Amino acid sequence: MAKYFDVHPENPQARSIGQIADAVRSGALIAYPTDSCYALGCRLGSRDGMDRIRAIRHLDDRHHFTLMCRDFAQLGQFVRVDNDVFRAVKAATPGSYTFILPATREVPRKLMHPKKKTVGVRIPDHVVTQALLAELGEPLLSSTLLLPDEEEPLTQGWEIKDRLDHVVDAVVDSGDCGTEPTTVVDFSGGEAEIVRRGAGDTSRFE
Is the pTM of this model over 0.90? Predict the structure, then answer.
């Protein structure tokens, strides 16, 4: 049965954030809100967490996981960003964008795209997520909480608790969450390629 954390959206309770971070460090798979929609998250490098996310979402081995990063400095540890791309990504963060970039050696091989050696990264504009990332001290390995055969992600913490109670370890609820996944921009070839149009404005990359 998943633990349920009711977290204030503007002033997250330090005790709750600490408990959630401790759970992630211990191997927990969590459902948590972001600035686009709910996501599933686990500790970076957790094979069990990855396998469970794939099982919940019916994903294959080619799925691009996302590293949810606290800030640009942390993001820069896990992906290579040249000057032109740096300016474009910096101007759009924090925000509802996922960027696909060449991975550094800090990224476990099993997280990379098998051929391109890329990984998705993003910096969320969400108070609770930022508090959790600050407490955790490392990125969250994440994937949009979009269930198989459903067109929109789940948006309510109580509904997620009800439906995923036995497949996740914790649900973080901080009120309403959006239904639109991030805009995904692939910079791995040097130029911006919009892979998915979502919550983030795409005009700056066109």
Answer: yes
pLDDT digits (tens, 9 = 90+) for 70-82: 999 999 999 999 9
Output Rg (C-alpha) for the chain, integer angstroms. Answer: 16
CA–CA gap between residue 200 and residue 111 (Å, rounded): 24
Amino acid at site 139:
P
Residue 120's closest CA among 100, 102, 104? 100
Helices 127-136 and 14-25 sit at what angle, rounded to 10 degrees? 60
Kindly indicate the confidence band of residue 176, based on its pLDDT and cuts at 50, 70 and 90.
confident
Distance CA 104, CA 48 (A): 22
Query: Of 82, 115, 64, 98, whose CA–CA distance to 205 is shortest?
Result: 98
Query: How far apart are alpha carbons 112 and 107 in whole angstroms?
Result: 7
Q: Tokens for 138? A: 């490392």
**What was the pLDDT predicted at 47?**
92
In sequence order, which residues have a C-beta less than 8 Å from that of residue 40 and are 6 or more positions away? 29, 30, 31, 53, 56, 57, 142, 143, 144, 145, 168
Q: How far apart, in whole angstroms, are the C-alpha atoms of residue 156 and residue 162?
A: 10
Antiparallel, parallel or unpaired: β 97-102 and 183-186: parallel
Q: Report residue 132 CA to chain centroid gap.
A: 12
